[in-house]
Amino acid sequence: MKLIELPRFGLDALTVRECDPPKPGPGEVLVRVHANSLNFRDLRVVQGLYDRKMHLPRIPLSDGAGEVAEAGPGVTRFKTGDRVAAIFFQTWLTGPPHAGYFASALGGAIDGMLSEYVVLHEDGLVHIPGRLTYEEAATLPCAAVTAWNALHGSAHVKAGETVLIQGTGGVSLFALQFAQMAGAQVIGTSSSDDKLARAQTLGLANGVNYRQHPDWSRAVKQMVPDGVDHIVEVGGAGTFAQSLRAIRVGGHIAMIGILSGVSADIPTALILQKAARVTGIYVGSRAMFEDMNRAIDLHHLKPVIDRVFGFGEIREALEYMESGAHFGKIVIRHAV
Ligand SMILES: NC(=O)c1ccc[n+]([C@@H]2O[C@H](COP(=O)([O-])OP(=O)(O)OC[C@H]3O[C@@H](n4cnc5c(N)ncnc54)[C@H](OP(=O)(O)O)[C@@H]3O)[C@@H](O)[C@H]2O)c1
User: Fold this and answer.
1) Domain 2-140+303-333 classified CATH 3.40.50.620?
2) Where are the beta strands (DSSP E) in 7-161?
3) Strand, helix or coil at 223?
4) Which of 268, 266, 227, 230 has its CA nearest to residue 246?
5) pLDDT for position 184
6) Going by CA atoms, what residue is nearest to atom 18 of ligand 1?
């Protein structure tokens, strides 16, 4: 079998290695991976910008979906042939987050999914929604679960509320779909008018170009004078102050990303003047993943895939992500 590993940081360091498939031990499952998807984190991991002290070599990518090739002794949750995806934190099964879970993050703290075969504990897998292809299911573990947690875990979006998404990447388009599913109205920002128009075909009610309008909260307040109920904050340092201006009194900001940097001057008084609730989101648990999968099944939701690359094209796929040209998810398809 083949896997791709990172012996040192840098896109040019990604190396294909051949080895024997691993054997599943008691309670473990051997998965034949059919597809992976990329997250912004994977790019930072490979570039050495996520954790300089990360143990190397490391197999990158948190996200993968495939079929059970062999169930080890004592496995009860899965059988050969089941269609599965790995959960981001292998040990966060249910309940609130705990520091101990973070040491089990695939493609970061531990080896990830960019391999033809992986062995995982049966607890670290979920069944994938029946209507999704492996490529579609591979988009779920990080971006979709994060968006689900933002709207249905740390908050409870209701019909008739307003949700603001930022940009048109993986997390944001899942948030658009989940918010719509709940009957909420969604408005969004993007660097591109074309991407805003594409998002409108998915149901975005209104949009503002953050390149043309760096103070985009003004435009949002014109659309929703009292401010929005929920913000899925992926911009980080460069967008948080705008989010505090755009949120309504008593609204919820799900703090997720750092696309525009990690620290900034923040008008902290606005947090109390708005009585805003700001929650740090770190992906989510297996229970959230399973709740989300039920909703995906029921609503026939299809993830938005921008482009599919081959297994050997991981560098090109990450470079494409770095370009920012994508709309939704970037997927790696294995030749199975
Ligand atoms: N905390 C967590 O658990 C968690 C989980 C997943 C992701 N994240 C973080 O969330 C962020 C998004 O991740 P992703 O995987 O969805 O990334 P992605 O798919 O690469 O999406 C990036 C998109 O965000 C938009 N963007 C870039 N800079 C922006 C800015 N200053 N303001 C608003 N939008 C901006 C761009 O969309 P346009 O081209 O439309 O402008 C860009 O295409 C990253 O920082 C990632 O690390 C965190």
Assistant:
1) no
2) 15-18, 28-37, 63-71, 83-86, 117-121, 125-127
3) helix
4) 227
5) 98
6) 169
Q: What letter would DSSP give residue 10?
A: S
- What is the identity of the amino acid at 119? V
How far apart are the C-alpha atoms of 241 and 236, rounded to whole Å?
9
Q: How far is the CA of 50 from the centre of ligand 1 (A)?
A: 15
Which of 171, 196, 213 to mutate to test ligand 1, by most ligand atoms within 8 A of the CB atom? 171
Q: Tell me whether the CATH fold assigned to 2-140+303-333 matches the one assigned to 155-280.
A: no
Neighbouring C-beta atoms of residue 302, cutoff 10 Å: 14
| Cα distance between residue 64 and residue 60, in whole Å | 11
Residues with CB under 6 A from ligand 1: 39-41, 142-143, 146, 166-171, 189-192, 195, 210, 234-235, 238-239, 256-260, 281-283, 321, 324, 326
- CA of residue 230 to ligand 1 center, whole Å: 17
d(CA 40, ligand 1 centre) in Å: 7
Q: Do 248 and 228 contact (CB within 8 A), yes or no?
A: yes
Pairing of strands 305-310, 329-333: parallel
C-alpha span between 191 and 213 (Å, rounded): 9
Question: Atom 25, ligand 1: which residue's CA is nearest?
Answer: 167
Say what the pTM is: 0.98
Is 336's pLDDT higher than 90?
Answer: no
What does the pLDDT read at residue 142?
A: 98
Cα separations in angstroms, 64 against 15, 92, 281, 322, 332: 18, 17, 21, 20, 9
**What tokens appear for 31 in the block?**
């998965």
103's CB contacts (< 8 A; 6+ apart) are: 91, 109, 110
Tens digits of residue pLDDT in 39-59? 999 999 999 999 999 999 999
CA of 41 to the centre of ligand 1 (A): 9
User: Which CATH number does 155-280 carry?
Assistant: 3.40.50.720
How far apart CA 281 and CA 72 sit, in angstroms, is 34
